[in-house]
């Protein structure tokens, strides 16, 4: 058997979600056996001493404090951009210009106009480009998709989803980049609802119209200059109208006491219903009209060898975690780089752009108080 070629990966960011991308780089070869072996060649962050310590901890031979140096390092063949939202466009576009493959964190950009520029640069570059909508790669989500694609839920009538946590309940928490429109683009809409919008498109199809309401519950937070304004929404709710005829609801909020990372959806069709809850991510609740004699839902433990990714990890019932979604995502990305064409699961920059269009539509609808048909 020939040697698997190594491919250099540079990661922009080293704390936050960057850590789980590094974990994926270190783990993907262990179970997934992708055709390319990713090697972490450099990290980039703001504070030299911290990023140096992280590089040492993760085994990266180089570290930088300027993203330009990271993307121009010739060892970097793949850029994983895990920086705040205002640092998605410029580093990604420069990396694409240099022919790097790019995996960018969600939301792709702060708004649809910025996302369009990035999708266009990606199209021109002719490289692999994906957005880290990692929940597409959760086995139970893929099982739900399979049931829908096989027609086992029949004609889809309803999509209902919530992404809720209690991370901003404490009004004394300092303002971060996430509460600044100029840096984040939006609040709960881009941060949380974007995951829902991507799953809605992935599972049910395109969204033709939205009607939304949003709130800022805590309008000022402590910052460097004393009390600083929060100009992005803490919560957004919306109704969704799908092109295929289904209707749906969405709720995203950081003001839900007791909720830690609730990403929940329920999809109902003429043939049945599926329910997913991220905090129970190895399970899918399934009810099909053929089961009517059972009178209720079945809880399917999605860890059998026949389930998505079931054959590559542990024995039946030996459950997976949140981090596996990033390992699966990186595996799909590497296969795309190697020219394999598996059933495409990963979200592309075009998907990221569509999601940004829908996020803008939520915000436009909430501020205008009317139904919005997103641009085609
Ligand atoms: N897919 C997911 O489930 C998921 C989860 C969390 C965050 N995210 C996304 O990931 C991105 C980062 O979020 P986070 O929570 O990790 O943020 P964070 O603030 O915790 O981390 C940001 C990282 O970027 C680095 N950074 C910031 N400014 C920089 C600069 N000027 N130069 C170089 N490096 C810089 C920081 O050092 C840090 O490592 C966001 O776009 C967010 O939406 C996605």
Number of helices: 10
Per CATH, the class of the largest domain reads: Alpha Beta
Give the SSE order as H and E letters: EHEHEHEHEHEHEHHEEEEEEEEEHH
Query: Helix/strand/pairing class, anyone?
Result: alpha/beta
Q: How far is the N terminus from the C terminus?
A: 48 Å
* Percentage beta strand: 25-35%
Please give the domain count. Answer: 2
Number of strands: 16
Average pLDDT rating:
96
Bound molecules: nicotinamide-adenine-dinucleotide
Low-confidence stretches: none
What does this structure look like?
With 376 residues, this protein is of the alpha/beta class. The protein folds into 2 domains: 5-134, NAD(P)-binding Rossmann-like Domain (Rossmann fold, 3-Layer(aba) Sandwich), CATH 3.40.50; 136-368, Dihydrodipicolinate Reductase, domain 2 (2-Layer Sandwich), CATH 3.30.360. Helix content is 32%, strand content 26%. The protein contains 10 helices and 16 strands. It has an 8-stranded mixed beta sheet. Strands 3-2-1-4-5-6 form a 6-stranded parallel beta sheet, sandwiched between helices. Strands 9-10 form a two-stranded antiparallel ribbon. α1 (18-31) packs across α9 (322-337) and α5 (112-125) runs antiparallel to α10 (349-368). The mean pLDDT is 96. It binds nicotinamide-adenine-dinucleotide.
